[in-house]
Amino acid sequence: MILKSGIKQSTITKISLTLFFFIVALILGSIYYMDSNIKAEQMAEMRKSQFKQLGLDLANASDYLTDEARKFAVVKDIIHLNQYWEEINVKKTRDHVISQLQELNSPQEEAELLAKAKRNSDALVETERRSMRLVLEALGVSEKDMVFEVATFQLSEEDKNLTSEEKFEKARDIMFDEKYAEDKKLIMEPIDNFQVLMNTRLDAELQIARQFTKRAVILQIILALTSFFALGILLTIFHKQYNLPIKHYTQDLKKFSFENKDFGLMPKGTQELRMFVATFNQLYQSFQEELLKRKQAEETMKVAKEEAEKANRAKSEFLASMSHEIRTPLNAIIGYEYLLESTDLSVKQQEYISKIGISAKNLLALINDILDFSKIEAGRLTMEMISFDLYDLIQDVCQLMSIEVQQKGLKLNKEIEKEVPRYIKGDPTRLKQVLVNLLSNGIKFTEEGYLHIGVKVKKQKRDKVYLLFSIADTGIGISEEQKRYLFESFTQGDASTSRKYGGTGLGLAISRKMVEMMKGKMEVESILGEGSIFYFTAQFQVTDEIIEENKTQEKPRWMDSFMNKKILVVEDHKINRQMIKEVLSHLGFDTDTASGGGQAVEMVRNNRYDLVLMDVRMPEMDGYEATKRIRAFVDADTLPIIALTADAVEEVATAVKEAGMNHYMTKPLNPEKLRNVLRKYAKVNEIKQKEKDSVFPQPKGLISYEEVIQNLGGKKKIYQNILQQFIEEHKKDGEKVKNLLTSEGYEKARFMLHTLKGIAGNIGAMKLKETVEDMEKAIKESNLKQIESTFLLFHRCLKETMMDAEKIIQSISQEEDTNKEKAEYLEEKQKIKKLLYLLQGGEAKAKEFFTLYEEDFIVIWGLVTYQELKKFIVRYEFEKAAAYLIKKIGLEGEKNV
């Protein structure tokens, strides 16, 4: 009976186990009982078969003896005699039958019948011995040759007196007469009686066994029905206590809805299921309460999210606004610094201007870091995938940091394992930014010792390579506590670090994010007081593309003709407006200005301009709106509009394009970049500066100078100085080469010729260049005969080239203006002083200054000295450059300018 409270699951389990073991016991018992009865039936059948066979065996044995005895009497073949006695003495079939009857516990009556048959058979043997003795005597077989059983039989006197024929006949008669048949019958009758008794008894036993088997079958059926009944009871319990309740719960759950606050399951089934349902109902009620709380929380979160989005938008707008507001005065500072550098300044003023420029650029770098961090947070920072030379990039980074390293008296080592591919695809700018940041930190926190940059392959899969970069230093180290916060934004090791060494704590956070964008990971190992090692991995693509080095070549100089080009500058900031106008006027533009978008629209409507520089953030009407209005009546192809913006964010490019502007530049403006953009969009006709009609004679010789002077922008003074330097440096090269060849200094000679070849090409001495090439080739191939013949040609060509150079120098000197030379000399001396000052101070700006006035320095020193000095400056070896400049130019008295 199922209680209202439900049956316990343990009770159902006990009932199930009890029924199971009961059914198993019944089945096993019935199987044993059935097996016993089947075996009993089989045993009865087997005994019947055995007893029947025994009777047959006895009858067959008797018949066999009779057949063999008769055959011997008839055919007189001794074989039959032997087989007869073999059956009696060896096989003993009759004796075995009697023995088996005893083993089978045959009833006495049946055993006596077979024993009687055996006795009668033995009596018949005597008759058969007589027949056999008669045959053997008739055959004349002596008694000693007879079978023992036959030899021991004695014939009667009557039989002995018979003739041989009579004995044969007598033997046959004995075996076939009526008496023998009667004796034979006496053997078979007991056997037949035995078969009848045995069959009757065994049939009765078999019938009893079969009855028991039938009973066992009936018992099996009863047990099967009992098992099915017990199983039915068990299934009924399971159905009522499990299946029906679960089905009921399933149907109810189909109607389940979180909106139905009164939902609940009706307890059914076992106590455990009822407990489960009760728990479910309680949980559902609790869930409804939590759901209500969650909905309230979601509403609160929704409001908070909207506020956060507003704050994020405000943050982005703040960054853009602050970027604009900071970059706007920076634009003016950097622009005026550029303009001031073009004026005559005292050494002290140059120092002030230089420091202003450095501070402005440092501030610009800080702003860029903040914007980079903002882009990373917003997921808008993208990675390029371009081919670059990794070895050159590492070298550039080392050269870039070499000045700071030298200033602190440190050493900078690099190690690139040979397995590292030289040419890879990735973002070289971001990689360089990470390396420079880590090296800068290392230099900042290292007072003595060294820094080391290493690169090796971590793993490579097909065309993907994972490189492991390491930057080690012997600085102050990082504690375990500091490591926990090292890569967090705006965080440094501790407050004292920030006070002593400076920094915002953004560098490592940005670097780590960039490494992660390169599918890598950044880690650090450090011992406080001993140094640190920063590791980071990055994924690149291996490429077979060879990056050609940007070799410095002498390219034709072009004069930008900005004359007669009219430009409109639209800028709401007065100082910036004035500064940009000064820069443009310096470049040769006819410049108008407008303080707002509306004024710009009217000025474009009423005037013709070759180009418009449009600030995008202005009050009342911004640059985007002004551009759209201008485009309404001016086609984009006829009037280039360049956006000026201090918002260095991704959205600017899209907004500029949508507004119809051609290009945009970020503030602070770089004068050289501005010049390149103006050259492109103002449609400047770049023309080679034509030479003025020469007043000096055009000597014909081995130097083709016309094209060289044109490539120098028509500046003959520069070319004159180059030729003078060429004569001074190389007039003795013939003798030097000869001495080197005599002392087998072939490699040094080839190096000297290689240098001379480049200079010959630069000054237009193409015949000398060709001769040097032949000489260089002969030395490389170690062809002594060829070396001798080409040297003679080289030596003569060098002398003739020198003579031509002197003639050209003399011709140029005739048309030089002495006063102009003097003024230029004073200006040149001032530039040299400034360069020396920057070099001695280890200022990175020295390279920029040197590049800006490269034409003037070539004029001042000549090409050879200029190129030698350039080697040091390009590698940021400023101390060597300063020493070389003092020694070469003779500024010993101005070493401490």
UniProtKB/TrEMBL annotation:
Coiled-coil parts of chain: 287-317
Location in the cell: Cell membrane
Keyword Nucleotide-binding: yes
Annotated HPt domain residues: 715-812
SUPFAM superfamilies linked: ATPase domain of HSP90 chaperone/DNA topoisomerase II/histidine kinase, CheY-like, Histidine-containing phosphotransfer domain, HPT domain, Homodimeric domain of signal transducing histidine kinase
Top EC class, one word: transferase
List of residues that carry 4-aspartylphosphate: 615
GO cellular component, one term: plasma membrane
Residue stretches making up the Response regulatory domain: 566-682
Transmembrane segments: 12-33, 217-238
Location, primary (coarse class): membrane
Catalytic reactions of this protein: ATP + protein L-histidine = ADP + protein N-phospho-L-histidine
Domain called Histidine kinase: residue spans: 321-542
Phosphohistidine: modified positions: 754
GO molecular function, one term: phosphorelay sensor kinase activity
Topology in membrane: Multi-pass membrane protein
Keywords: ATP-binding, Cell cycle, Cell membrane, Coiled coil, Kinase, Membrane, Nucleotide-binding, Phosphoprotein, Transferase, Transmembrane, Transmembrane helix, Two-component regulatory system
E.C. designation(s): 2.7.13.3
Biological role stated in the UniProt entry: May play the central regulatory role in sporulation. It may be an element of the effector pathway responsible for the activation of sporulation genes in response to nutritional stress. Spo0A may act in concert with spo0H (a sigma factor) to control the expression of some genes that are critical to the sporulation process.
Annotated family: In the N-terminal section; belongs to the phytochrome family.
Record-given protein name: Circadian input-output histidine kinase CikA
Annotated organism of origin: Clostridium formicaceticum
This protein's encoding gene: rpfC_1
